[in-house]
Amino acid sequence: MYQRSSVNIKKQIQAYWWTIPFILCIIGYTLPYLFTPTTVTMTPCIVYQSLPNALQICSKLRLNLQIIHEQATTQAPQGYILQQKPAAGSPIKEHQTIFITIATLPEPAKAPNCTQVNSKKLEQIEKEEHIKIKTFQLATNKYQHGQCIAQIPQPEQPITDKKMVAYLAVPTQELYVCPNIKGQNLAQAKQFCLSYKLKLESFMHNNKVNPAQEQEYTIIDQKPLPGSFIHPTKDIIQVHIEKQ
């Protein structure tokens, strides 16, 4: 019986023999820490320091840094430390870790979708999105008057300086080619312009002409020049006349 028990003990020892090197290795790493005194220091203040500067400060004190959070802000440069734990002045041992929160740039604002909205809706978008929208008019009859038909930048694209541009549709204006009425009789020229709903004004050395005597005057100059584009309700054809 005694021999059998001793054989069993040897087998059990042999079964766990491979763990001995690992146990010795662990003991070898642990003993220096058990017998070497640990230095306690005060936690440095690294808030509002850049990450490289904070690493230099902590390296000299044999402290570790670990980023646990990134906070988007415009109040501090990117990579600067906003918070730390433990707080500055707290006792800390060598090789312990200071947990920090660093600043990152916020994502750029994206342009809202302004297409197919009217000018009143654009004003509402300006207030809600806190942006400035500069508008320009484009002449077209394909869209409703005042409807936004294009924008810069495009929807969901990054917007800089909180500014964007919107193009609003306005009806196309009917333009005429200014006729050549030089050398024409004033009364006949007035009748011609009236048939096309064009406005005509005449002058002669700053003197007004009696409508009853218009047949006696000839146009010697005109403005705009013949061939110019004019709007029938906004532009006026001015003519210089003289008596025949």
- Assign the CATH class of the largest domain: Alpha Beta
**Strand order, sheet with most strands:** 2-5-3
Q: What radius of gyration results from the CA coordinates?
A: 45 Å
Quickly give the structural class. Answer: alpha/beta
Head-to-tail CA distance between termini: 155 Å
Mean pLDDT figure = 84
* Number of helical stretches of at least 4 residues: 5
CATH topology of the largest domain: Trypsin Inhibitor V, Chain A
User: In this structure, how is the largest beta sheet organized?
Assistant: 3 strands, mixed
> How many domains, as an integer?
3
What series of H and E elements makes up the topology?
HHEHEEEEHEEEEHEEEE
| Number of extended strands | 13
Shape category: rod-shaped
The CATH level-2 architecture of the largest domain is identified as 2-Layer Sandwich
Low-confidence stretches: none
Q: Beta-strand percentage? A: 25-35%
Helical coverage, percent range? 25-40%
Chain oligomer state:
single chain
Description:
With 244 residues, the chain is α/β, with parallel strands linked by helices. The protein is 25% helix and 30% strand. It contains 5 helices and 13 strands. The chain has helices at 2-15, 20-35, 51-60, 119-129, 186-195; strands spanning 40-42, 64-72, 81-85, 91-93, 97-104, 132-139, 148-152, 163-170, 176-177, 199-203, 217-223, 229-230, 236-243. It has a 3-stranded mixed beta sheet with strand order 2-5-3, with helices on one face. The radius of gyration is 45 Å and the shape is rod-shaped.
Key words describing this protein structure:
244 residues; alpha/beta; Trypsin Inhibitor V, Chain A; 3 domains; 3-stranded mixed beta sheet; 5 helices; 13 strands; 25% helix
